[in-house]
Design a protein that fits this description.
single chain; 285 residues; mainly alpha; Serine Threonine Protein Phosphatase 5, Tetratricopeptide repeat; 13 helices; 4% strand; flat
């Protein structure tokens, strides 16, 4: 019975963060765009990189695409390269000059070298294609027309005749509208706490350091504490793999044991957590 309740709550929690899972699709789109670019399908690569850019515009020097495969996430860079290959230098320079791309490019030397190689020819092409502005034509000075005579008044204005007073229209004050009374939001039944949903969103977006700082004991509900320990364990585990920090790995082990103490049956979802973490979770008892 306990396992059944935990599964139903987990289903509700996953439904609440379905939008976050959808945002993770940009990684798949980006991976397909990389493959298309490497295969020379520049039109397809341009379309896929534009889609990935719209889904997640912030580049990163290192991003886990799937499993243990890490790549730089540079949608502006590859969108510009694909446009350059297709002869669209205006789009290429626009993407390369994007502040977000320029901010991360110095860290990724291979990408910076590719732009440095292509940029001069693109700038030269645009400079050559830009038409020169023709000089203004010189025209002989035109003779000034004779001054026009003021029109003769056809009416005689009576002397010392004051104009009739102009009545000002009464200004009506607009009615004062009372602001609508906002009703407090009603929490849906079985809906996970919003901070926990945010923690899952940060985890899926690769903000592992943010998730590693959450406090699972802040949740009164045991199911919420279980999922908080679970996502914090996954974030600490990932950070330990990236930085080689044994202390973070020990913290991940402690979080796994705390999660198991709350629910010994529920296992990490395969759609959210990597195979490496799921194996790590199974080994820590």
């Amino acid at each position: 019975m306990r396992a059944g309740k935990a599964c139903r709550w987990a289903t509700a929690a996953l439904a609440s963060i379905a939008a976050s899972v959808a945002h993770a699709d940009y990684k798949d789109t980006y991976a397909h765009g990389l493959r298309a670019f490497e295969d020379g399908n520049y039109a397809e690569a341009r379309t896929l990189m534009q889609q990935a850019l719209e889904e997640h515009p912030e580049p990163a020097a290192r991003l886990r695409l799937y499993g243990q495969v890490y790549k730089p996430y540079l949608p502006q860079h590859y969108l510009g390269l694909a446009a350059f290959k297709l002869g669209d230098c205006e789009t290429a320079l626009k993407q390369w000059n994007d502040p977000a791309n320029r901010g991360v490019l110095p860290i990724v030397e291979e990408a910076r070298a590719a732009e440095d190689e292509a940029r001069p020819s693109c700038e030269k092409k645009l400079a050559t294609a830009k038409p020169a502005t023709p000089p203004p034509e010189s025209r002989p000075p035109e003779s000034a027309p004779p001054p026009a005579k003021p029109p003769e008044s056809t009416k005689t204005v009576a002397k010392n005749t004051a104009p009739p007073p102009v009545e000002k229209p009464a200004v009506e004050k607009p009615p004062v509208e009372k602001p609508p009374v906002e009703k407090p939001p009603v929490a849906a039944k079985n809906e996970p706490p919003q901070p926990l949903v945010q923690a899952f969103e940060d985890y899926l977006a690769g903000r592992y350091a943010e998730v590693a700082r959450i406090n699972p004991d802040a949740y009164a509900d045991a199911r919420a504490r279980f999922h908080a320990y679970l996502v914090r364990a996954a974030s600490r585990y990932t950070l330990s793999r990236l930085d080689g920090d044994a202390q973070l790995l020990n913290g991940a082990s402690a979080d796994v044991r705390a999660a198991r103490a709350l629910d010994a049956r529920t296992q990490p979802d395969a759609t959210l957590f990597s195979p490496g973490f799921r194996a790590f979770y199974s080994q820590n008892r």
